[in-house]
Amino acid sequence: MAAFETNRMVAAGTGVGVAGRLFAAFAAWNDARVTRKALSRLSDRELDDIGLSRSDIDAISARG
């Protein structure tokens, strides 16, 4: 069973200004991409074990 780190360390000052918003947008996009990829690798049975189906993957990864 694999474990995924879900917490992101944010450096001081990255939440300020255009650069901070750009970084946050990129980080959110990348987190959704990684989540989608990890869930897509699971078999239908594994998804069923955690209460999901293939059609749920995009909705789950977009929640960020």
Automatic annotation (TrEMBL):
Pfam families: YjiS-like (PF06568). Residues 22-58 form the YjiS-like domain. InterPro entries: YjiS-like (IPR009506). This is YjiS-like domain-containing protein.
